[in-house]
């Protein structure tokens, strides 16, 4: 009888295990999406802790490279939130931006089109917006916090950290429908709505938002949306901090775009990672490069902003002849005779630059119709950045976020400050202030 009782006890245990481990196929599919959000969790949570989601938007007028900077702020916010509860960062789809001038359709582009999602997820759990809609089962967001300035400005003319619920100052774009749902354009996903909405005035580093969210978004709130997330600042976690650089190092470009840039370098610039000493480690977390270890390809790279910069920053933007003069001087100094040009200059100015650089081999990645359809404006910008990042010597445009991001890329690859932090001087100036020199820091 004892043996029979033991056998029945064993069978009961097996039944209990199966009951708690078996799910329907549909639930498994959704769990797979949730786990794809990231393969790195620093904190282990018990089964009672349900995954929560942080979404965000940015001022529509902001450019591609500034949006990358805002991503780093929000990603590091999610990293801090994960020390409290499990959060996944939902990535806002890309759409047409001011500097994307082509006529091709560019709407609801996923982050995977431009960046390596697995690389991002080694920093914090991330998820595409469309995957969030599948996991969430309903096209709804629990709470929307629209971030704004304080109407009265700084107190006594001094900046101080503070955050308060306030009446909305400007037109937020969010409207309440007849059913009490908060509507916004949500990147063209018209079915999406918010259940609750508040305007929040703040002067705050992103880390200061953690206690606010933990206090005001209780356990019933699964999804939180931050409108105008650029209002958050890096503060003490800016370019000189380990936290900032960790987020930045995770932002590797999509491999297919890097491959296009590498192919161009090989065929047009006699440049490979092996000869340039710029081979990437498979995992950015293990990659540590000393400054000056990267050699770079036998060419100079130039980022020359024109268009709106000729008016917004005219004291820092040279005429075409003066730009050519500075390029030739840098080529001679570095014993190079090939220059790669990345510019938004119109064709007539580019033709003028080529004439001014007579005797110099000038090359660029052509924005053909086929390339634009395949990679989009943002993808071509990344291909150009990747090519510029591997040059033996780089010269950029002052105050341009495109050039800023290139400085960082070259720091990560191990280039020397002397070959990286250079910018054009305005017309009539032979010398001018050069970019600040940041150094990569590791956690």
UniProtKB/TrEMBL annotation:
GO terms for biological process: fucose metabolic process. This is GDP-fucose protein O-fucosyltransferase 2. Its EC number is 2.4.1.221. The keyword Nucleotidyltransferase does not apply. GO terms for molecular function: peptide-O-fucosyltransferase activity. Pfam families: O-FucT. It is found in: Endoplasmic reticulum; Golgi apparatus. GO terms for cellular component: endoplasmic reticulum; Golgi apparatus. Residues 1-26 form the signal peptide. It is an enzyme of class 2 (transferase). PANTHER family: GDP-FUCOSE PROTEIN O-FUCOSYLTRANSFERASE 2 (PTHR13398:SF0). Pathway: Protein modification; protein glycosylation. It comes from the Eukaryota. Keywords: Carbohydrate metabolism, Disulfide bond, Endoplasmic reticulum, Fucose metabolism, Glycoprotein, Glycosyltransferase, Golgi apparatus, Signal, Transferase. InterPro entries: GDP-Fuc_O-FucTrfase, OFUT2-like. It catalyses: L-threonyl-[protein] + GDP-beta-L-fucose = 3-O-(alpha-L-fucosyl)-L-threonyl-[protein] + GDP + H(+); L-seryl-[protein] + GDP-beta-L-fucose = 3-O-(alpha-L-fucosyl)-L-seryl-[protein] + GDP + H(+). Belongs to the glycosyltransferase 68 family.
